[in-house]
Amino acid sequence: MATRRFTGDLPPDSNDDGYAVPQPPIQPAPAQPRPAGPVAPSTPRSAPQRPTAHLPRTLTQVLNEANERVIQGDLVDYVPMSTGFDPLDGFIGGGLRKTELTLLGGAQGIGKTIATLQIARNIAMRPDQYAFYLSYEHTETHLMHRLLCMESINPPEVDITRGIKLRDLYQIIVAERAKGFMGRDPNSPGSLQAILKENPRTAPALARMSRYADRMILVKASPAVTTLKAIKEMTARLCDATGGNVTVFVDYLQKIAVYPERPRDENDKVTIIVEGLKDIALSLDVPVWSIVAADREGLKSKRIHLFHLRGSSALDYESDIAIIMNNKYHILSKDHVAFNPYTAKQFRDWVVFTVEKNRAGRAMQDMEFQLYGQHFAFDPRGQKVQQQLIDDKVIES
């Protein structure tokens, strides 16, 4: 199948900020021409179309357009995309929805990137969905290595006996190439893919990753040039190429470049960014998931909350769902009748996800997931927290 390239006023591999844009791996059906004004309810169409943002439409037009999409089997507005984290999906209405902005906050090293990349992988596993992952922190190659380590334990199976760590992966690659360079083994595989495919420890992980590799789109974003405008342009072109079946992941929000705006301070910058991400979700009709860093006060506190995220109150106002991650051991109430400093150590590898804002349901819901940090994976089969946490908050089973 031919590869579809972006089209428009810009070169196919760059945007007006001079930053490379990913090439979608599919050839979609040709787009139907759109009228310049609002679509009349009686206008015949061969395929369901999304209305252009910011054009006024009567309620009758909205109803008729929604009715036509349902008739033709387009149910994306009604079926959320599962994150693959079972208790989390239950609390947020089944998963991620188009037009919604979800924020994930927490301290450094708590596992925000691990959870986000795993959720992106879970969405890309669906044959009709694409994950667009922008990382301001890691290269595309490093993210690929993380995915290989995660796939080695195959969540939700989580078979640790077959797991590989990052250093194991590097040693396998270097050792095989060294054999070839030194002439010890003339049949030693020379390419990375051949090494991974022929090694019994990495072959299963590579096979699993290959099932969604064409639907996982990675970008090493730059804090200097990857602006909100660039993100919106890349997302729009991906939507055109994939029929709008894209979920956007940003790692992380505070590093998005703001230009040509000149924010007065950190709060002003975060306001511009979070409003821009929400606009992308609404105008392009896609789910947007973004990691948010905690501020200094939050890092000093015993338990991080939504108001500890670095930036402004716009994070609370603009987000549809806000999830905060905390290490369970650190927030377990020492007054709990069952607390024992020795047995409590078992909770060091558990992370509490708290839904602190939820426009579609109940907020302040706590659930916990076990983290396998060396394999860059969570066990997505979590559970509701049973113990008492600090803040005098008791979670009922």
Concise overview:
The protein is α/β, with parallel strands linked by helices and 397 residues long. The chain has helices at residues 59-71, 86-91, 112-124, 140-153, 166-181, 192-198, 203-210, 228-242, 266-284, 296-300, 314-318, 328-331; strands spanning 101-106, 130-135, 216-220, 246-251, 288-293, 321-327, 350-358, 365-372, 377-378, 383-384, 388-389, 393-394.
Outline the secondary-structure elements:
Elements lengths: L58 H13 L14 H6 L9 E6 L5 H13 L5 E6 L4 H14 L12 H16 L10 H7 L4 H8 L5 E5 L7 H15 L3 E6 L14 H19 L3 E6 L2 H5 L13 H5 L2 E7 H4 L18 E9 L6 E8 L4 E2 L4 E2 L3 E2 L3 E2 L3
Parallel strand pairs: 1-5, 1-6, 2-3, 2-4, 4-5
Antiparallel strand pairs: 6-7, 7-8, 8-9, 8-10, 11-12
Continuous helix count: 12
Number of domains: 1
Number of strands: 12
Q: What overall geometry do the principal axes of the alpha carbons give?
A: globular
CATH architecture annotation name: 3-Layer(aba) Sandwich
The sequence of SSEs as H and E is: HHEHEHHHHEHEHEHHEHEEEEEE
Residue stretches low in confidence (pLDDT < 50, at least 5 long) are: 1-22, 24-48, 392-397
Mean pLDDT: 83
